[in-house]
Write a structure and sequence with these properties.
alpha+beta; 60s Ribosomal Protein L30, Chain: A; 2 domains; 4-stranded mixed beta sheet; 22% strand; elongated
Length: 292
Amino acid sequence: MKKSLASLLLLCLPLLIQAQDQFSVYFDSNKHELTKIEEDRLKAWINGNKDSKVLAINGYTDEDGTVGLNDTLAQRRVTTVFNSIKGRINTRDDFKTRSFGELHKQSKNKAENRKVTLYYLQKKDLARENEVLGITAAPVKRQPVKYPEKIYMPKPDGTQVEVVLDKELIAAIEAGKPGDIIRLKNINFYENSFGILPESGPRLTELLAIMKANKNLKIKIQGHICCMEGDPRDLSTKRAKQVMEFLNKNGIEKSRLSFEGLGTSKPINPLPEKDEAERAENRRVEIMIVEN
């Protein structure tokens, strides 16, 4: 705090504008000591603000005297007030003082210019301190996610096959924000069924590994079908649910998963599709980032 007083660090303008409360004491001409009346006023303010927090103390003078003398006088007035509240009123860690001397907008009433003003927050506003001061919290730095060097998918015969992680998919998920949609490639189903084809196993294993590595990731699995308007058999919902149940049965908490079927309401290609390639694009599974 002594360093702050000695250097008289500048206080940023937004702080002065947004500080909710202020209190001033006044000085006689060319004096830095408080009169008995003003000293009593300051003591009364201190007693009534035990739970408040001081943000800044600014000192002022009138235009009588030289600029250098007035700057020194303003500094002494700030020091007087600070010494009175020190140890009695809480202050911000980055508490600052500033002496303006006569270099401020002067009132026609000289007595109003010979003052020290405290800017402070009352107890009821302390929870909103940074908001009131216009301070934005520093973003939390995201820790790099560690993925296993190799992942394996079990086969029905008891052997295992290595699955190579899709770096593009990982990058898309890590950069994903709530509401972003990411397509899962090569997750296919038996025709007119919600049964997952064996060829989809590696991609499901990959998604499982990504979910296990990204502990904060929550997703909604969205199913889509092709070929016809509507979804009379609700296949899109049942297919999305199958993917969710695979993840859940393999250790992903239900609280991180949800699902929905969108039928043909959001096709990539217009209906009816021109060929099997377009139908395959429409017949897809996507994930929506819910939390990341």
